[in-house]
Amino acid sequence: MYQTCTGWGFYQTCEEGSECPYSKGYHNIDQDLEMCLSVFNVTEETVYEGVEKSNEVYGGWNLNGTRILFVNGDVDPWSTLSVTPTNEDIIEGELKDSSFWVEGASHHFWTHEILDTDGEVVNEGRERIWSTVSGWLEESTSVFSGSYADPNHPECGRYVVIGSNGIDGSVYGVDGDEGSEDCANPVPWGPLPATVDGEDIVIDFSGKGGPSDLWGVYVDVDAGILFSDGNEWARV
Question: What is the pTM assigned to this prediction?
Answer without folding.
Answer: 0.53
